[in-house]
Amino acid sequence: SRSLKMSVWHQTNHTNTRREFVIITASISSLSASFLRSRGFGVAFSVKRSSRASSLYSRREHRTRSTGVVKGVSRSIHMSPAVSNVDDGKTKKKKRVILWHRNDLRVRDNLTLKEALTFCSESSELYELVPTYIFDPRWFLSDDAFDRSDQKRREKSLTNAPKCSQRRAEFLLESVLDLKERYKRLGSDLLIKIGKSEDVLDALDADVVVCSREVCEDERALERKVKRKAKGELKLVWDNTLYHYEDVFESGNCYQNGLNDLPTQFTQFKNKVESKVSVRKPILNDAELSDGLKKFSSPSNVSEEEMQFVPTIEDIPLSDDARQMHAAIPKDNSITPVYSFKGGESEALKRVQRYLYETDAVATYFDTRNGMLEDLESTKLAPYLALGCISPRFIENEIRKYEKERVENKSTYWVIFELTWRDFYRFFALRHGAKIFKLDGIGSNGKMPPWTAEHEGRDEIFEKWISGTTGYPLIDANMRELKLTGWMSNRGRQNVASWLALDARIDWRMGAEWFEFLLLDYDPASNWGNWVAAAGLTRGRVNKFNIPKQTKDYDPQMKYCRKFIPELDSKDYPRPVQLKKFAFEESSSSRNNGGRNGPGRGTTNGRGGRRGKQNRQPRNNAFYDDDRQNGGGGFS
Predict the structure, then answer these.
(1) pLDDT tens per residue across span 16-39
(2) What b/e readout covers 4-31, taking b as 16+ CB neighbours within 10 angstroms?
(3) CA angle, 473 as apex, 469 and 479 as ends, to 5°?
(4) Whole-angstrom Cα distance, residue 574 to residue 557?
(5) pTM of the model
(6) What is the pLDDT of residues 124-141, one digit of tens each?
């Protein structure tokens, strides 16, 4: 097997440099070695293992400890009579509204929560509100765990990688538990369950299920499953974007023909929404929330045992592969992460306060955002945005207040600009559907070279990419950081994506799946939208990065590279992978008149994506890290 000679390294006792190389590369490459055999390459998590992993939640269904797990088809919620005194002295059974939290793990400025409270208060019926979060095994196991009978995302996983790493699962769990505590402080509580979402919601006997509307294929397919199976009404609420969908596509002020008018290029979208649409103000302060939640909370209608269930990481239905990979990472690793992320709305609010008012770092964001070594070089809000621990509207509102109180400049604007990128990819995913998961994307603006085939060494090159042993220091350092921490800077994401898709010509979806597995800030719209754009498959220019020049520009003293590659200056560091030379050709229409999207389109090669003087628009930060999104747009 291709274990990168790990058995040899474990038996050596050379210099400290070699020991550190063992610590880092062993935790990376040995992971590859264990999964990467079944299909003969680096990230081939075996189908058999994935099948075993896919039954993980079913093996845990009947654990007596985990009362939050749906036990087969039986009801997991034990209902009390659910009565309420009314003026006529009689009793009425309350109807139930389930607030199904998905990627909106917050109480502040949560439009879905507002909709649920409004529904309860305006109805002539008596309602109780039960906020609920469900750890659905399908978001943690391999891609094949999804039933594709009613939707087409991608035919089959290319890597068989799990959908979620343990580190991201830990961040998610921290966020859910923080949400539970915030509900308690407001006089309510969060019910936490484990199981398939449609089964759990059916077992809860909801008259109405209120949840945020998602934009990608798997998430929308799940909404259809819930709608078919759950007994009550499913109310979908648009949330988690800076600009509201209705204001952009239904008001008549922006795009007259709705979503079909969405351009394929960001700059056109940005110019339109900035001139035609206003950002809605954040809603619901804590006092308003507390009054509403206390009015409709009925903890007596759910057993105390159910409400008190607090899962641990062992209860989360992770795949065996994800757990083994996490266990292989040395806990005494001397490499400290750029930022130690802790999940939850409370932490997200602290981060905004620190980045704006405690340090004034936002005032220099434009100049520091490409940095890869320091905490305050970028906002680090992406993981919180990905899970909805904070809303983009709240961030924008805080920046506007900061601008009034302290300073308004290009940097403060640029943070909002990055949030607009994130919006674009959510609308882009909704507009193009399954195409963003297809090899050809939504189309190219010229003739693209062929993809590297398996017999041409595709698998071996991909294994070196994921393990950080390509021989290109900037690529390797970023890939090792991702494996060790779940994080990668915006600048790093652009470079590793360009190298894989445009230099090595490896199927870009393999890279997108690997990011999906590992990124703390993964969200499907930002991740897959950015990857298909980085591959040059959104009918726009191909932005091919010159990796040596990028290294010189953004890590001139090699401090970042040496941090994650301690063996960089020794003979143990591999020589660069030998790659074929590929030619990218513009279409004739693009050469003659700028193509469908105007002048300046086509292929940029060797300039790191810098635009010409004729069109100095803010560039695509191909992978956001701070606004998630990776995982997101571009936000760092």
Answers:
(1) 444 444 344 444 444 444 444 343
(2) bebeebeeeeeeeebebbbbbbbbbbbb
(3) 60
(4) 20
(5) 0.83
(6) 888 899 999 999 999 998
